[in-house]
Amino acid sequence: MDSAELQTERKRIADLRATLTALPFCDAVHSVTATAGETAIPSQEDAVLHCMWARRTVELVLLVRTNIYPRDAREILWRMDALTANRPDAVPVLVADAISATAKEMLRDRRAAYFDAGGSLFLCSEPVYVHIDRPSPRPMASRVQSLFRGSRAQVVHCLLLAPRTWFGATHLAEQAGVSPGTASVVLRHLEQHEWVHTRGRGPTKQRRVADAGCLLDAWTRSNEAVRPFSVRDYYVPVVPEQALALELQRAFTAHGGDYALTGESAAQRYAPFLSTVSRIHCLVAPRDGRIDSVLRDLDARRVDQGANLSVTPAPFPGAFASREQVDGVWLASPVIVYLDLLRVGGRGREMARHLRRERIGY
């Protein structure tokens, strides 16, 4: 272990000590370096904390690691079981730089203790129960969020539209309209999180979505952590909503621009839920100069209140490739519409749940 790794390990242990000391029921914490014989797990990274909780001494055996994904969590659980078998009174604790959300869930299901650099702490051992849930440390959080941005989001979106299909990297790249390298990177990250099943090896290796609902939920959580795209609001002197949607179709066709309805207007066409929809949410291609011509054609006027048309950039470059035409107008894919509804607020979340149940199906 080099000096930088050793320094990082010591900082994680010091952070855990500080977190434990701040707990109201923790009277004292001190640490000793553990030997391989003491922990029954031969690793130079292990350490021991002795805590006094409610006048009871508890020994925490720390297993220090870097980034933990589901596969790593299973190996850690095996080591924890081995340690507990040798020292029943000891409480194993995983101390890591970062732990993925799925790995944390696996650990909690087994009542296995963990602590990460973001300050998340889970301890479930008599007489103590602690669960502090904080955002993942920036490197892992950024890595997860990057899966749902730009061309990588196109790959995830393609997988969610065909969750039962086995894809090789090249085939997936062609379907998503990205480079094989981008598809391979995304598939590798998804495999780390166990969001895909795999079969075959080397050039014949294929992946398929393991749990589409879990992957869509991960995309939802990622969106909650980032700033939404800018929205421009307009008033167009055309009512009702059905007439305005058809006018949008006419204007975009006339000027050669791409668009797709999203939000409540699209969801209502996919899976009717509301009695009326008063505003259209429209996705457009970023930096497309033809949009201004379309808006002039519609006599659209920028407003702060009373808008019946909201315009926002498409979430990723290939968003229009999966649009569907319903009732004479173009709609974004149900997956995109679902994600956008969750940002709308109000009854958007109810409508999102309805769309997911009736149209998306996972």
What does this structure look like?
This protein is of the alpha+beta class. The chain is built from 14 helices and 16 strands. The strands form 4 sheets. A 7-stranded mixed beta sheet has the order 1-2-3-4-5-6-7, sandwiched between helices. α6 crosses α7, α11 runs parallel beside α14 and α13 runs antiparallel to α14. The protein is elongated and about 75 Å long. The chain starts with a helix and ends with a helix.
Structure summarized in a few sentences:
With 362 residues, the protein is α+β, with helices and mostly antiparallel strands. The protein has helices spanning 3-21, 36-39, 70-86, 101-109, 138-146, 150-161, 169-176, 180-192, 212-224, 241-255, 263-270, 290-297, 334-344, 348-360; strands at residues 26-33, 47-53, 56-68, 90-99, 113-116, 121-125, 128-132, 196-199, 206-209, 232-235, 259-262, 280-284, 301-302, 309-313, 324-326, 329-331.
Q: What characterizes the major β-sheet?
A: 7 strands, mixed
- Give the structural class: alpha+beta
Radius of gyration: 26 Å
Number of helices: 14
